[in-house]
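Friendly challenge for the regulars: who can give me the structure tokens for this chain first? No prize, just bragging rights.
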Amino acid sequence: MLPLNDTLKIEDARDRVLVRLDRPHVRNAIDAAMVADLHEVCAELERRPRILVITGAGGIFAAGADIRELRERRREDALAGINSGLFERIARLPMPSIAAIDGPALGGGAELAYACDFRIATPRARFGNPEAGLGIMAAAGACWRLRELVGEPLAKEVLLAGRVLSAEEALAVRLVNELVPEDELPAAADRLVSRIARNAPLALRLTKLALAAPPGAHPSFDNVAQAVLFETEDKHERMTAFLERRH
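First reply, four minutes later:
Bragging rights claimed.
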């Protein structure tokens, strides 16, 4: 699985895909080429679901959208949802996604991290949305995902008052699931992938769908999803192994 452009480095494995944002000369700014490449990754993971890990090259996760491109965008570009459409697609991938963050995750980079299911960071990580200072808003998910993740008062500080969260602050409010030293970030992401991958793939997929379902869908959605899982061979084999005390 190779991207069409040169914005990503990809490691493709049986149960996981590691994607490294690779534009360190512009602090891994998210441009149209990177958006296109990430859509290619999403298409592959929709065809063959696996766990996704996204990280950045050069001690930076992503310092935002590419300002040179952003300055030239107009109304039609905003209505097309260039970044918001990509991040929504990442959020809706069949299997879980992990953002492994070293260094700044700002603007669109922060919104990319918010769209993932898990976030692991180093002490150098920082999270912020400075879009209002550039005359725009954080329109690719921060205005609602960040509120859901950390609560409205803190989200308003970030979005309206320009507060940048340190790694420790992000951990304290559970925006970050785990904080690890820089040299341990790849291993920590691998450990989390391995923990997730021990579970039944279809159970993971349906649980992720249940978590994303609107309140009115419960418990009906859960009952139907459980009915599907009750009929799988994987469920029978895993429960039999549990009862027989074998792995």
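The chain has a mean pLDDT of 96. The longest helix spans residues 32-47. Your move, everyone else.
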